[in-house]
UniProtKB/TrEMBL annotation:
Pfam families: SCP_3. InterPro entries: SCP2_sterol-bd_dom_sf, SCP_3. It comes from Leucobacter allii. Coiled coil: none annotated. This is Sterol carrier family protein. Residues 25-116 form the Bacterial SCP orthologue domain.
């Protein structure tokens, strides 16, 4: 189980504010990290690394573990896209088709894991 650093109530409040579009950088960072923690809790493991620069990254999904160097399965996106994916405002296939997500590796996908929260 992933260790939470952001209390759930704080994460939800930051997410609600971030979705308004005018949130401060710190609020946006909290929302992104909260959603990354939620993903790690729901899909524990070390097979896929999800990166949302500049705010955070997490490893998730059961399967083969990498131990050195760049992980073989990496997903990277921007904060706004991550929030849209995690809340169901954007689906995985559309995000990939529109190149809003960069995914490399045979297991680098989050189909079936998203959305994390419904708003």
């Amino acid at each position: 189980m992933a260790k939470r650093r952001i209390p759930i109530d704080d994460g939800r409040a930051a997410l609600a504010e971030a979705r308004t579009g005018g949130a401060a950088r710190a609020v946006l960072a909290t929302a992104v990290r909260y959603l990354l923690e939620e993903l790690a809790e729901r899909a524990p493991g070390n097979t896929v690394e999800v990166r949302v620069p500049p705010f955070g990254a997490t490893q998730c999904v059961q399967g083969p573990r990498h131990t050195r160097g760049t992980p073989p399965n990496v997903i990277e996106t921007d904060p706004a896209t991550w929030i849209a994916l995690a809340t169901g405002e954007l689906d995985w296939e559309t995000a990939i088709a529109e190149a809003r997500v960069r995914a490399s590796g045979s297991r680098a996908e989050l189909v079936g894991l998203l959305p994390l929260v419904r708003v």
